[in-house]
Amino acid sequence: MTLSELDLSHTRAVVVGDLMLDCNVWGATDRVSPEAPVVVVRVESRTNRPGGAANTAANMASLGAQVSVVGAVGADAEATLLTDSLLSLGLDVSGLIVSADRPTTTKTRFYAQNQQLLRTDSESTVPLSDDIRSQVVAHALAQIDQVDVVVLSDYAKGVMSESVCAEVIGAARAAGRPVLVDPKGRNYLKYRGASVITPNLEELRRAVNADLHSDDDVIAAGRDLATELGEDTVILVTRGADGMTLIDGAGTHHIPTAARAVFDVTGAGDTVLATLGVALAAGADIRSAAELANRAAAIVVGRVGTAVVTRDELLGHP
Known about the structure:
Elements: E1 12-17, E2 19-28, E3 42-52, H1 53-62, E4 66-74, H2 77-88, E5 92-99, E6 106-112, E7 115-122, H3 130-144, E8 149-153, H4 162-174, E9 179-182, E10 196-197, H5 201-208, H6 215-229, E11 234-238, E12 244-248, E13 251-255, H7 268-281, H8 286-300, H9 311-316
Parallel strand pairs: 1-4, 1-8, 2-6, 4-5, 8-9, 9-10, 10-11
Antiparallel strand pairs: 2-3, 6-7, 11-12, 12-13
Helix pairs in contact: 1-7, 3-4, 5-6, 7-8
């Protein structure tokens, strides 16, 4: 199935996970500070974009899907910036739960001459309080019957606990909805029952606690992980310059990278997850969906900072 045959505009998705605000500070530098051995950046502009799970949701919306976002934000100015950004993209933000005891996760990157010089993080990684957790789960479960695909984006910021993952995955499976997961950490058992897991190579290494030096190593590790999570779980390993490796019930399928130039890999995993989810929701088979996700990733790594891909861009990309 080709992209032109897919009707993406009628796909519906719910994205649950660690929401972030990506703040980019752009400037120029031509001198070193007299106060310390650091460069001085002359700030020229600032941009704010959805990051983390919010970037996944933004990419799905850019491809034409109707998307609901569920997660926790702080009672702060960054939450307002993130909410406004998502609203401007047409996303449903009724599932953004305000937690007064944690900040909105914010990554601030400083660039000069399009080179990243520094990143600062404002975040909390402690688990959600019982009240906030219950609200997040309730909003997620309320969406499942109304969507075609459920996406979990885990950045280890406290939202995607074992209980949240178990309840959402269990409800989605009961409703016959596919669940896609961008994982984090070592405890992959909390994703048991998911339809597709999309670890990058380093995440897969940590998950299986082994060095992976060859294609055979990657395939063996992916099969072991799939067996642990459920025989019908598909593993899509993103491997940077080495492309992607898909491990499913039909065997393995390697997809060479389509990137012509790599300027910034920030958010590329979000784009892969988003494109995979929208394509599957529109009726693509897993291998066609993975090919599309690979093409989408090739586009965003050619840009600086988090970025979204449109359907027209995918159609025009070889």
